[in-house]
Design goal:
3-stranded antiparallel β-sheet, mainly alpha
């Protein structure tokens, strides 16, 4: 009788019917649906920006705040024994700095997007260092806000949901729940499925340990189901 009451009585009871779905990533097929939808859209500045944004999130695993802060000056070219490669310098949570691979398809998409914004250049190094990677539609030198980016992704996923509803109702339901952060999970899950090491995934996401990165992936459940079947 050290305590005069049970301190846990004040906690809300767990309702099984209110459990949130654990899925936080898109399958390869669902990501393919997103790309199909984007390719079907008219080529405008807004659609080109959206295509670049989605690829940026998918290919790097960046957080929303990291995408809105990224500038051309954060791009670095590294010269290795066999070839040169681009990286994006990122300051993440806790002020931790990391370099994320900026792969060739992503660089090609950046070139297309920058040209649509009116920038004429041969290399990214020709652009002003303070040029935002993702800009507002109203001003090419003003970065998109975090709220605007979140809304943009939610609207896009909602439109993809409507677009695939007649063909794939399960995917449509997934897209209705999807948000910006889902592509961070998708980056990790797809990378591991394609043979990328967990250490590289950890470094891309900017996590302090592999244990944290493991929380972002759905491969364990997928493998469990596959082996059981």
């Amino acid at each position: 009788r050290y305590l005069d009451s049970n301190p846990f009585e004040g906690l809300p009871k767990l309702n099984r019917n209110n459990l949130k779905p654990t899925q936080r990533s898109l399958s390869f097929q669902q990501w393919g649906r997103v790309r199909e939808y984007l390719q079907a859209q008219p080529k405008t500045l807004a659609s080109i920006r959206l295509s670049f944004l989605l690829l940026l999130a998918y290919a790097t695993g960046l957080r929303r705040s990291e995408m809105t802060k990224a500038c051309v000056g954060d791009l670095r070219v590294r010269h290795f024994a066999e070839k040169s490669a681009w990286f994006l310098n990122v300051i993440g949570k806790g002020g931790r700095q990391r370099e994320v691979p900026f792969v060739r398809p992503l660089m090609n998409a950046l070139h297309q997007y920058m040209q649509a914004r009116g920038h004429q250049f041969e290399s990214a190094l020709d652009l002003s260092p303070d040029t935002p990677l993702v800009a507002s539609l109203e001003a090419s030198n003003r970065p998109i806000s975090e709220n605007a980016l979140y809304t943009l992704f939610k609207d896009c996923f909602a439109q993809v949901s409507d677009w695939v509803c007649s063909r794939d109702k399960e995917a449509a339901a997934v897209f209705k729940r999807a948000s910006t952060h889902w592509l961070r999970h998708t980056h990790a899950t797809h990378a591991l499925r394609r043979g990328v090491g967990l250490e590289s995934v950890r470094d891309n996401l900017g996590h302090s340990s592999i244990a944290v990165s493991s929380l972002y992936i759905d491969t364990d459940l997928e493998e469990q189901h596959k082996e059981t079947e």
